[in-house]
């Protein structure tokens, strides 16, 4: 099945002003696709298309991907108001669209289930806070009471909400919970070679690890969410262990990319296999964040390394997921919820 991702390319290009970013990511056709998606009534949230790309598969507000579309609208608003402000309002650069209005419209009906709405992948969540205050408080509360047994790497991008809430006058306990979770994830999800497990099953009584593996891949996989999550946690806390972890996960990811330059749905999947442009777009965003962090730390070599890797990955995404793709979504050749043993 050919699955597609709507939001990935925007995440990949939202955090940089570098002239060498592929021009295709600023093509007017992409803005047209986003505007078309936003023109529907926000009663169901698009996640992926059918094989031909002609029809969206959409889901209700309880689905964990429901925040992707309004988050993308927020990023487009930031692109046009901060990163690349337009001198002339025109459809050619998407500046004629009220992206902030669309973001608010599409986020108004989101569920407060933190395991789903909490997954707002953009590293600038602190500036692009989608949720109204009452919903934000509900999300944070739900994060504090999530069942501790089954933990997935994806939660690394959820716990930033705890840090942000603590920084806005919330309880310091929220920060302690977030760092405790990050430390536990580092200890039990990340292998010695810097690949990672997707899922860890803990004994609910003792907290001991009962099993490690994945629910969405082959036995060996490195998770894009880990690269982004640990980079984001460093960005919020300045704890260098998180930066080191993101660096090592990212380098493992880059070292194991196939010749196409875009990850398969799993690094250990038997060949020939299906590409995963959606995961690679998340990784490109994480690499750009790493580059920004290195710049602020005065590490010009590291900044150039990660930005160069991000630009290469974005260029490969254009070749593998945008060129020749005429579907409703931004990217073709994406993967969602693929399992080694369906």
pLDDT < 50 stretches: 1-19, 114-118, 120-128
Q: How many individual helices?
A: 12
Helix content: 40-55%
SSE run: EHHEEHHHHEHHEEHHHHE
The number of strands is 7
Structure classification: mainly alpha
Q: Overall 3D geometry?
A: globular
- How confident is the prediction overall: mean pLDDT? 80
Strands across the major sheet, in which order? 4-5-6
Query: How far apart, in Å, are the first and last alpha carbons?
Result: 14 Å
* Cα-based radius of gyration, to the nearest Å: 19 Å
Strand percent estimate = 5-15%
Characterize the largest beta sheet: strand count, sense, and whether it forms a barrel.
3 strands, antiparallel
